[in-house]
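Dear colleagues,

I hope this message finds you well. In preparation for our joint manuscript, I am sending the cysteine desulfurase (Leucobacter triazinivorans) sequence together with its predicted structure, so that both groups work from identical material. I would be grateful if you could confirm receipt.
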Amino acid sequence: AELRAAFPYFAAHDASAARTGAPTPAYLDAAATSQRPAEVLDAERRFLETANAAVHRGTSGAVGTATEAFEGARAAVARFVGAAAPEQIVWAENATDALNIVALGIAEANAGLGLAGSERFALGPGDEILVTEAEHHANLIPWQRLAAKTGASFRYIPAREDGTWSLDDARAALNERTRIFAFAHVSNATGYVAPVAELAELARSVGALTVLDACQSVPHIPVDFAALGVDFAAFSGHKMLGPNGIGVLYGRPELLAALPPSRTGGSAITKVTMERADFMPPPMRFEPGTQPVSQVVGLGAAVSFLEAVGMERAAAREHELVERLVAGIAATPGVRLLGPSDPAHRIALAAVSIEGLHAHDVGQFLDEQGVLVRVGHHCAQPLHRALGITSSTRASVHLTTTEDEVDRFLDAIRGAQRYFGVEVAA
Ligand code: PMP
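The corresponding structure tokens are as follows:
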């Protein structure tokens, strides 16, 4: 209750519900976007009101103060995800953009431009890019395109019947031709947690780079990219209590230093002539143009908030909620749970397919009950196709979710079955 009160969104809705007697919305869509605590909203506003200036441009004291706030947030994010140095953190628009910086950078390295460091990313016919069938489109399409541009083969680890895949599946798919292995730490459709450290070790043993989509892990569990041994990782501010319009790319220093910037322009360079440009070291070589400064400051505040709560504590709390969610779904006939049935292998969410009902009908019914979830393919069309469905209904929890909200979701899906007259075998 104390945590919820720190979020103006929940405080406002809870107060209005208390006034009108209507149920407060059960916000079970944090996997799509999370709500922000007052600290985050205030940090952004305070920065804009008192310290806004053109970061990294000019010599005034005001610019220095704004730059300190901007770079302080980078250091905070670095610490939060186990990066040894702030320079390993590159600002992007969101996770999608961060993943594109890697894929487009590798394409640039192979475009015959003679850019320094490009050899590290040589990719062509005979090489393989490996993903899984469970990826979010953001960690799928950039790699399809990179394969098409370079002539490398595009391969994937097929999803099993429950939408998961295993270390053994990866072992069978990785080989000495694999150059890039891109996968999600936690699937946004099944909640499945991949054994990242073991997978990164396997990839390293065949000389492949690992690119981790950490969108659904960083907001929920303690994550240390250095300890996990991944080469690149991406996540979004808006799913971890932070602002929209800010995402993060983490990279190993020597790889970021060798990766060509795919977007170029002002402030990312050291020397420009009418013929060519030399780029700054990372992270600034990847941050051309004016940056989303207040969003960066807000993300720094989100990290402080999460650190104050404690990620171990948040993870333990969310795990209880997920156990309750999975147990309730398992006890509901006619409802198929996507992903692992053992909650020990999943984080933060559960998506279901209800026999005889389209997810959009379910979503509309749930909305009428004030239960806010995500329906559709969740940007994971290939996974849904592999599971023989076109869409699902996803409930996701966060550190502010209550048991009551979980129960309201479970009641509402049973209510939808009754409302639409679905016959379920007892
Ligand atoms: N990967 C995963 C696993 C996600 O859940 C999401 C967000 N749905 C993304 C990538 C893309 O994040 P964004 O839209 O913030 O770029």
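For the figure legend, we might mention the following. The chain has a mean pLDDT of 96. The longest helix spans residues 61-80.

With kind regards,
E.M.
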